[in-house]
Structures are given as C-alpha cells and as structure tokens.
C-alpha cells in the first residue's frame, strides 16, 4: 500500500553516501549508516559518557558496534509509549542477526540525519514510525551484517558463503569457529559492501513476534527518565505564571514577597509571562503564589456558550464546497425519509500524564535543551528563533515522553524554557503544574457538523450532505513549518493529503483549503452514496489548537459513523448490513468490518441487557472496526462492557504492540467520549485538573479484544487508527439500548440520564 | 532538619515540614521514580508506602512522615532482583509511556500485602485511584493476578476475603483499618 507521503525508501543506493565509518577515541567502532532519502551531514556530539562510566566518541549513527562487543542502535524516533523503541529494535535485530534484547538503545538528539522520511522533518507522529523505518532500518542493519560477514570471511580466508551471521557472531559453518561482532568491528571498518537483499518474511525471527517491550524494565523499577526528571549540575527549577486566559496581556508584577525566600533566585518577565526561578520546584511554586501579577482583560468573546451558538449558526449557512457528486435535490424530492442532524464535539485537552516541561542551558555561545518533545528538530528551530544562535550551536536531546498524543508536537514548553535560560547563567528546568497543562494546551478543535441524508423508496441511502465548522490546526502550525522546512509542507496537511487520496487532495488544494485535517474522514467516505456533498466552514483561530490523537478523524468519524447509523435505521437496515452494502466492492474495510462483527458475535443476539454498536474508520492508511457492547442500567448507568476491534495495518512488526495501541486508543477515545470537554468562560479555560477533566479509570475500562488482519502489505499506521471508531460504536450501542441518539459529546453532557 | 528512613536508609533533609514528601523524594533525595501528575491526589502517580501503607506523597507533608519507614519504587526490587509484581508487569507488557506505572505498582503492592489473591473487584477498587492515560488497565489487572499467583501459588481466594478498601480520590489514602485475614 503506498500513499503520496511514503516514498520508496530504498531506491538504488550509492553506498558511499550510505556508509561512513569512524573509529571512536575509546576504540569502539561506530558505523554511521544514514537512511537514504534523509538529510546528510553528521554532526558529532563529541565525547559522551556511557552509562557504565566509560567515554566514547559518538558521531551520529544508527548502529554502533563497540570493540567491547556492545552493540546498540540509535532510536531516531521518540518513545512515548507507542513502542518505537521495541519495534525499531526488532527491525534492526532481524537483519543484524542479534536478539533484540541484546541491542543497546540510545535516544537520538536533534539532527538532520534523523529526518522522518514520511514527514520530511525529524518528528514522531501521524502513526508513521514503523511505516517510514520499516525498510531503511532493516537495510542499515543488513549492510552492517554484510560488512561483518565479509570481515570474518577475510579473517579466516574462507568463502563468504561459509560465513553465517547468528546471535551477534559470525560463524564459519563448516568448522564451527566463530567471531563475535565486537572482535570484527575494526576490520569491518574498512570494508565496502553491496546493498544486500532483505530477508523474506518466512525467515523472520523477530519481526511479527510479540517481543517484550525493550523499555518495560526501566518503567517498572523507577529508572526511566522523562523530561521532568532531568537533573544537571547547578540546575535550578522555574515555574511560569501565564496569562489567565485568551487575550490577556501582562501589565506588571510585584515580586518583593516572593524574593524574600533565599531559595528563590530570580523573578523576571518573559514574553507575556513571569518566570520564578528557585532551587527546587516546590520553592518556585510557593514563591509564585506570592507574586502579584496584573493582566489586562481576557477576551469575553471566547466563551463556550457563545461559541456553541456561533458554530451552530455557521453550519446553518452555506460554506465552501470541497467535493460534490450526484444530485442531492433530486434525491431529496424522491426521498421516502429525510434526516437532518447537527453534531457537536468539544475542544479536548491532551492531559498527558507527564506535565509539560523542558530544561535549557545557554552557555558559551550554545544552547542545549532536554525535553520530552515529539520533534527535536522543531524544538531546535524554536531555539534558533528565540536565541538567534545557528543550528550548529544548538542541541536538543529527547528524553522519554510521559505521554505524547500529539501534545509534544508543539514546542511551547521549549520556547519558554529557552527564554528563561537566556536570562540566567545556569541550566534551568521549567516544570508545568497540572493546572498550567490543562489551561495552556493546543486543544483538539471544537467541531460542529450539519448533515442531511435521505433514504429512497426502495430503502437505499440516496444522499449525504455534510457541512463542518471547525478551526484549522494547520493554520497555526503550518505557517511556522512552511518557513522552517519548506520542503515539508505543513506536515499534518501533507500526511492527510495522502490519506485523502490524490483526487480529493487536488480538489482541496484548488478549493484553497489549507487544512485537510478539518475534513479527513468526512470528505471521502468508505461508502458509495450516489449524491454526496462536503462543505467546510473554517472558524477564526481564537483558541490555540493542535493535533490530538488521530487529529481530524477524532471528530469526523464520530459524525460519519453515527449518521450512517441514523440513515441505516431510517432505511430499516441492520447497521452492519447497511455498511456492508454501501462499502466499495473489494474494499479492505469489508474484511475488517466482517472480522470485528464475527468476533463480536454480531449475528447472534447479545445477552439480555447488553446492546451493541458498530463503527469503522480508515485512518493513517489502516482500517479499524470496533463493536462496542454496553449495558444501560437505571441505577448504575452506562457501562461499556466489551469492545471487539479488528485492525488491518499491513505487515505487523509486533502484534502485542498493535494490540496495546488499539487498547490504548480505545481508552483514550472513550475517556473523551464519556465525560471530557474543555469549556471557556470569558476567555478562561474552566477545567484545571483531573477532577474536572476526568479520564477513564480502571474500573471503567471495558474488556478489549483485538483481532489483527493477516497482511503482507507494507506496514500502515498503528498508534491512532483504533481511536476514531470507539465513540461512535458506543453511541450507536446507546441507541440500540435506549432509542436515543447522542449527537453531542461528551456523553455526560448530552445524556445525563444515562450515566451515573 | 527532618530525619527520614527511605528504602531502608536513614536520610536527613533540611526543608520546611509542610513540603510535600513527593518533592522531597524527587528534589532533595534524587529519587525520581515517584512522579508528579496532578498535585491534588487525583492521579496516584506519586504513590509511595509509609509504614507499609500506600499514600499519595503529593499531599503528604514531609513533617508527618518523620521517623516512619518510606518505601519508593526504587526500593521495591531487592539486590537487583525484581519483585514478582514488577516481573509480572514486564511479562504482561504493561507499560506504554510508563509515567504512571511507579504509582500503579506501589498501589498494587499495597493491595497484595493485604489481599494475597485479589479479585478483579478488589483490584479495581484500589487501583481506581491511579490514572493511566495510555489505557494499560486491562494488562494491569492481568499482571496483578499473575503476580498474586506467583507469590502465593497455593493460596486459594478465601470465600470471605476482606474487601479491599477503595482508594479515596480526593484525600490521602489512610492506613487501612481492616485487619489481615
């Protein structure tokens, strides 16, 4: 399966560009292997202390083979729970012929060598990590293996065909003698090899296996280090007092009381905020309570009641037509049934478990940053703009990330930290409170839709017209990206252009639509309906918005999968059968839909009191269908008892990670659908912590069964596709249970009587 | 000066006694395994044991735990050997981002001390105080069961097993008043 965003990552490779070998000062051979199609140039990080106390010279590299036989690879993606560390290790291990558990892992910092070739910048997101690394990482590892095999062959004077790579050593098969990779490193340095053929899937030892997570141990013994855990010599910690709401401007502050604490180092202004720097987070937080800050008024127009009315009004008027086929007027005239509906979805916070934070140190004409960012290169660009330093004097080191979900694509926490660091001489860590985090997010945009649909006299769904009003994400992030990485095009837009398909992408471009994420999942349905129209009314960017796990399909699929259910019901059709009938012949979605339905036992009645709903989404080039089983009890309320999911994500590197990501997506999406929303009153976000933005807890988690379609196609996205179907599947189940349609999320707002 | 015993070792800190134990552990004692998630005992990421009972360290003033035994995630493994609960977490591939897992394990550890073979309801009652944004809940339950089996393989669930006390979500978890079976 190809998309316009996935380039062939392994065209005829010039191996001289591909390989560069260096000897480390400590004697460790470092094979620098660049990924074809990515930026060249290798920036050295100089002397680096190894965890065991040794020091070695580390040029950027993807694979390192120490003369001490320590074999490791550099993870150029971010590990935020989605398993990149493990899946990347499997890809490398497969071709390098070494157990994944034997491979050391290092987190890359910002570098042109690590550009994500699906996104054109160094960024982890859009469910692209396995997609874009699948061939390049394996190729890099295969080349290293061939160099080692050749080195052994020369050492023994034996034919290459007699030398086999196995478990971190080259074995001379006839005699049984062997040499470990570490022993071969020095000689391998001087060898050139042809780009080898990759292993056939039938010979895979690690790919396709549920290998234990590489980061599991460190995450159960307290040793995993996140951005918030960074500690440097002489470091101070700062908290920031930010504008209380949209539009407020800093007018002044009084810090005398705060400065009385000898543990407080300084209090000063940064752009539209006040920084309080102290010896520790707690000292800074206590001192901040004593700082009196004056702000100008917040924007009273940013108010959820006003916004709700404005969005509803907007979808009542015509908007830019993105795509239109067939004759809606004729269908309406001949309709046996007509349905009109307005669907409303709220702003949502990411609420990552680890609050935002970053550590920055400006010193000796350089700036070093440590942050739980999803994009070290975007962060580096922000540092460049704030400090005026050149890229060569900037380094951004990624840490483990305590939850990304798209939040860490924004670099606001880096920007703040650098502003603070520029005013002091020591490293400074800026830590956000949960309240800071909840109120200063790039929210999933609010989206209101108006739909019209018809069923003809034969019971066929005959027309579908959808108008969406929502804020553009790309409008806020896109301009920045276009200036920084013009070859990238707004990354979100580019990814979604691919997902839209060439034809619609062209239409979107001609229609001047800057943000295809606003309509992804709604502009091209998996269903063939003879009359179809999609309109977009972009809303003025009053509120900071961003990519929230699954981005545009996080709201469009709820609308699509609920409204198709409404039409199916009007046509007297079973929700599964209606979808099957409408899906394009030969669509991979049919297989996924049928698998979910079969495993859920859709065709057999559920036990008394249990009701089912179904939904399907194509997202990030994968298909995911979910059947939700809910019980509704007048005393206990709504309980989602079980979710049966089927996913087609092409070739699977680690089936357990795929299952984890679907479980995770379901939990994340269900939290939002049940009772999460971000509301504004007079410009101020009303929510502040987990008590008023309540996530799902363990006793509310349904049983989740994940069934993976067996596929030989190239890998497609895994981190996000499981999210869009859950809310509509549950809403459709609620309809089956109660006869009531949920057209507004979260459920807690629209169906109070159904919930505790 | 406040004298503490942390993971079996005597430690002394010089902070105001109302400083939350969480920040003392993280910033005075260099023990970063205990995490900050909310600051108001809503999320459980800060869970440690004080005299064997789980508490939310973000709302526990350090002055209140002077001379009491404090156990953090760093002290759960002994001599580099993982506790069966930690091993079960790995075997079930529980952690994703991992940020909440220290707190989850500390809460689960507290449960297993009181209820060696808990039911799903027992697990849910105690761990409902620990939020996971990555949704690892199904695997957490499996891991607790796995660990319980490994720790007491011959014990069957007693018919009148004491019900685990639910974690209060807006107040510190106080030492349980229920006796052992």
Give a written overview of the molecule.
- The complex is a heterodimer of chains A (756) and B (181).
- With 756 residues, chain A is an alpha+beta fold.
- In chain A, 29% of the residues lie in helices and 25% in strands.
- Chain B is 29% helix and 12% strand.
- Chain B is α+β, with helices and mostly antiparallel strands and 181 residues long.
- In chain B, a hairpin with a 2-residue loop joins strand 1 and strand 2.
- Chain B has a 5-stranded mixed sheet, with helices on both faces.
- Chain B has 5 helices and 5 strands.
- In chain B, 55% of the residues are buried.
- Chain B is globular, with a radius of gyration of 16 Å.
- In chain B, helix 2 packs across helix 5 and helix 3 crosses helix 4 (120-127).
- At the A-B interface, helix 5 and helix 19 of A face helix 1, helix 2, helix 3, helix 4 and helix 5 of B.
Please name the defining characteristics of this protein.
heterodimer; A: 756 residues; alpha+beta; five-stranded mixed beta sheet; 21 helices; 25% strand; globular; disordered N terminus; B: 181 residues; 5 helices; 29% helix; disordered C terminus
